[in-house]
Design a protein that fits this description.
globular; alpha/beta; 25% strand; 126 residues
Length: 126
Amino acid sequence: MIDPRITWITGERHAGPNEWIGVLEVRIDGSCRAAIAERVEVDGRCHIRLARTAWQSKDAIDTRWWSLVLDREGKAYTVRNGSCGDALTTADVPRVTAALVSLRLASPGTMLALDDAPAIFPWRVD
């Protein structure tokens, strides 16, 4: 069963490369949700349009949106600021990792592309 905090968006298909994209929303209290779609079904094929389709706008100034690219298993492959515009910093890592675990979107291949440090792989086991 899919977590009710995950919203799947579908739409008219456009030309272009296909991949699953998403937006991770984390509020100041740690609550989270995600919107996911096939890129070719998102207006403008960008993350911010996906977020606005799912939720219209942020509900608070401290709410953060981060762009996701998902792998073939539906897990987060990359988390970054992307078109959503919120910087992803080392200070955000605990909230982002907790949200990804809570939504069951984390995997050993998940990379957090940080804006203030090199990218990290929180779940990678070497």
